[in-house]
Amino acid sequence: DQQVKQNSPSLSVQEGRISILNCDYTNSMFDYFLWYKKYPAEGPTFLISISSIKDKNEDGRFTVFLNKSAKHLSLHIVPSQPGDSAVYFCAASEDQDSNYQLIWGAGTKLIIKP
Amino acid sequence: NAGVTQTPKFQVLKTGQSMTLQCAQDMNHEYMSWYRQDPGMGLRLIHYSVGAGITDQGEVPNGYNVSRSTTEDFPLRLLSAAPSQTSVYFCASSYKAVYNEQFFGPGTRLTVL
Q: Which of A24, A78, B93, B101 places its Cα 20 to 30 Å from the Cα of B69?
């Protein structure tokens, strides 16, 4: 039973346009969400996070939106650049004060076309 | 700072062999963890540690042991390798806990024949 789902295995976007990556979750106890980016043959790197008390967090070209009622979050990248081509994982954690486990989605491969 | 280092990068084992995957970090992070990544799946937590001398099981701990004798090192031991343990293994560390930014090593690609 996947608690964190990224239903699009891949996404292709034109350079300069907006990339929108989606993530759904089933566990209503999740209260912290993170996005990581992964290049081939490297470990994931942290991109951006959001707490359940917020519905939006922005960092430069990256914005994460959280819709708690729909149990859905999305990552927007504007404008998309060739270096953004990577696999993006969303991950979730419940009870940030005492829980030490992240549940990860399967990832979405983003391809930015020149 | 080297960040999080993992050795080896690649390893091939025969069924039944044992080995240790090494992980070290030089950021004085309290939290360290081991994940495995299989095709079409997200990272799954094997074991984690919240400080020297403290370890706990994650989602998929069977067949693996860990210890944390120092803040810097967190080795993962495969006791008797099985083909189902063929995977890419990542070690990660963070300042306090999982909701802090985790820094990942480059991974170890393990094949068990």
A: B101
**Among all residues of chain B, which has the CA nearest to that of A3?**
B42
A/B interface, count of CB pairs below 8 Å: 60
- Separation between Cα atoms, residue B87 and residue B36, nearest integer Å: 6
pLDDT at B90 over 70: yes
Verify whether the Cβ–Cβ distance B99 to A96 is below 8 Å.
yes
Encode pLDDT of A82-96 as tens digits: 999 999 999 998 865
Tell the burial category of A62 from Cβ atoms under 10 Å away from its Cβ (0-12, 13-18, 19+).
Answer: middle
CB-count burial class (<10 Å; 0-12, 13-18, 19+) for B8: exposed
* Cβ–Cβ contact B31 with A under 8 A: yes
Task: Give the chain B residue whose CA is nearest to the CA of A92.
Answer: B99
If phi > 0 it is left, if psi is from -120 to 50 it is alpha, else beta; for residue A53 that is alpha
Above 60 in pLDDT, residue A97? no
Q: Give CA torsion, residues A63, A55, A107, B101, to 10 deg.
A: 80
**pLDDT grade, residue B39 (50/70/90)?**
confident
